[in-house]
């Protein structure tokens, strides 16, 4: 099972890529863990790419968070323009994909604006993941919302299955239903408090991808925790 690590500093991304037992399969690069993740500075991606510039093999994919501010996921026209411009800049700098989520004022998937960003990424050969804005959608409407994401062109959705404080562990039942409903049309990436100590309890969801911040001190990735997660997903 593949492992994605959320990284909130350039050094964390470098650690996760080079961590013991092969490290992560993909990086989600974002800033400000305490804000729930927002768009990182462009210089962070450039720093990571520069660090690995002399590697003989390609580094793992780096997906960049597009979120202009913390708070809700209903954005003004100006904020949407910021997301569009950031996507273009990061794509030109070598990002492999993007993670974002736009909701309507009523809390539904904003199909029109999400599709515009997905198409903008697609013409540049970049994939898109809908982030945990999905968690706040009522459980009874999550399958419908999942189908909307497929229509928008998203390749994956990052979710804990629930908006509850327990994270993915508390959303196991919903996650299982989402994986079944996805039917291979979209990847369900399980995230939300995922650690080596509880990953085993999430296997029953049937999900293939798992997402963790694997944090140690501050906002830095814990290399040992990445190694533990790596060991578990390879069993």
Automatic annotation (TrEMBL):
InterPro entries: CutC-like, CutC-like_dom_sf. GO terms for molecular function: copper ion binding. Pfam families: CutC (PF03932). Gene3D superfamilies: Copper homeostasis (CutC) domain. Belongs to the CutC family. This is Copper homeostasis protein cutC homolog.
């Amino acid at each position: 099972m593949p492992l994605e690590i959320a990284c909130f500093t350039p050094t964390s991304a470098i650690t996760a890529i080079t961590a013991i037992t092969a490290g992560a399969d993909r990086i989600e690069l974002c800033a400000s863990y305490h804000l729930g993740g927002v768009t990182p500075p462009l210089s962070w991606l450039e720093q990571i790419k520069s660090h690995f510039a002399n590697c003989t093999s390609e580094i793992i994919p780096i997906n960049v968070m597009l979120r202009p501010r913390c708070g809700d996921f209903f954005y003004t026209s100006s904020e949407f323009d910021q997301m569009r411009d950031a996507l273009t800049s990061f794509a030109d700098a070598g990002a492999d994909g993007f993670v974002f989520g736009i909701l309507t004022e009523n809390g539904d998937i904003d199909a029109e604006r999400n599709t515009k960003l997905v198409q903008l990424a697609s013409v540049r050969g970049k994939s898109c993941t809908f982030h945990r804005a999905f968690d706040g959608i009522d459980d009874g409407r999550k399958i419908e919302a999942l189908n909307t994401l497929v229509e928008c062109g998203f390749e994956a959705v990052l979710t804990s299955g629930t908006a509850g404080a327990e994270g993915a562990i508390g959303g196991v039942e919903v996650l299982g239903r989402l994986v079944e409903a996805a039917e291979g049309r979209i990847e369900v990436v399980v995230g939300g408090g995922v650690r080596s100590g509880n990953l085993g309890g999430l296997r029953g969801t049937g999900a293939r991808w798992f997402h963790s911040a694997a944090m140690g001190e501050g906002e830095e990735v814990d290399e040992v925790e990445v190694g533990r997660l790596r060991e578990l997903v390879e069993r």
